[in-house]
Amino acid sequence: MMNKFERRDGNPIKKAFIYFVCIILALLSIWPFYVMAINSTRSTFEVQQQAVALMPSTHLMDNFKVFQGKSFNPGRGFLNSLIVAVGATACTVYFSTLTAYALVAYQWKLRNAMFTFILCVMMIPGQVTAIGFYQFMYRIHMTNNLLALILPAVYAPSAVFFMRQFMIASLPLELLDSARIDGAGEFFTFNRIAMPIMKPAMATQGIFSFVGTWNNLFMPSILLTRDEVKTMPVMVSMLKGDIYKREYGAIYLGLTLTVLPLFVVYFALSKYIIAGIALGGVKG
């Protein structure tokens, strides 16, 4: 007789159905990116005649030539977006983890009040503060400067909330006390002990921050007006032209170029996300 604690194989029909559903969902997720990549090789006329095609066309180089007349420089746009996305992601992940560490690892009088304040700040939309932020950057001569999009990433209340919740469940405070007893400084304890434990959460938040910063169009379009400092989303928005003449093939090509780095970042950090999910399952 099979022991009741032994794992039993499920119904094969049910398992096949689950795999079928997962495959369908995966195909539905991939389909928009596939259409976007295919349309980047088609002409505007072909896109207007048939919005969705399964096979690529032969107008990829023609779509690249459209960039020349639109002040669209993919290399410069990639570099600017990469600088902003990497810098903002590094600031968000590190300083949000540091703030969460202060809220979890230390006992101080206004700790709960400060966390409540952070939650309240999360409710304020970024568009509400956009005008004041632009005026501030204009007065300190930071417009048309990529640092204006990187330095504010230090303030990320949603990332602080995420890191704090993960740290409460995953960070053993006894380990920190042991390091202090051995004479380790606070920054050494944070950088060498707390941060390695937080890698899954940091990778997850890094993906969110990188994708959000890379795709950000609102603030870069306000702060960056010179062509040499514009990011990829701003440059792609310039390809739209007017309602009478839109190069849809070039637009799809620009969107495809914009999405490619996001795939690289996701696949590079996906193992840490899986590790975080597994860690949460074990602790549960």
Chart the SSEs and their pairings.
Layout (H helix, E strand, L loop, with lengths): L11 H28 L4 H6 L10 H9 L5 H32 L5 H12 L7 H10 L7 H4 L6 H14 L2 H9 L4 H12 L1 H16 L3 H6 L8 H7 L9 H36 L1
Helix pairs in contact: 1-14, 3-14, 4-8, 4-11, 5-8, 9-10, 11-14, 13-14
Explained architecture:
With 284 residues, the chain is an all-alpha fold. The protein folds into 2 domains: 12-61, no CATH class; 70-238, MetI-like fold (Orthogonal Bundle). It has helices spanning 12-39, 44-49, 60-68, 74-105, 111-122, 130-139, 147-150, 157-170, 173-181, 186-197, 199-214, 218-223, 232-238, 248-283. Helix 1 packs antiparallel against helix 14 (248-283). The longest helix is centred in the last third of the chain and has 36 residues, at 248-283.
In short:
This protein is mainly α and 284 residues long.
Label this structure with key terms.
MetI-like fold, 284 residues, 71% helix, mainly alpha, disordered C terminus
Which fold name corresponds to the CATH topology of the largest domain? MetI-like fold
CATH architecture of the largest domain: Orthogonal Bundle
Report the average pLDDT across residues.
80
Number of strands: 0
Summing up helix and strand content along with how strands pair, one would put the structural category as mainly alpha
User: How many helices?
Assistant: 14
| Name of the CATH class of the largest domain | Mainly Alpha
Poorly predicted regions are 280-284
Round the Cα radius of gyration to an integer and report it: 24 Å
Could you give the distance between the termini?
Answer: 30 Å
What oligomeric state do these chains adopt? single chain
- Give me the CATH superfamily of the largest domain: MetI-like
Which percent band covers the strand fraction?
A: under 5%
Q: Level of helix content?
A: over 70%
